[in-house]
Specification:
Helix content is about 55%, strand content about 0%. The chain is mainly α. It has a domain at about 1-40. α1 (about 1-25) packs antiparallel against α2. About 5% of the residues are buried.
Length: about 70
Amino acid sequence: MAAHVMTAAAQMGYVIFREACVRDTGIPLEELDERAAGACAHGAGLAAAPPPDATDGGAASRPCTGTQS
């Protein structure tokens, strides 16, 4: 049950903050959605390998603050 709750919370949080993350990181929305899906699949043990390394100058490693910088 706890795993289900955490999965649901992560999905709701992503939906709430994805547009702010796009603004903060500069990653296009479609690409961010693909990366999130890959990270979710990897975290759930459904992916054979981790998502590919980012080629965005480190934008993927910057936190999403929910505020425009």
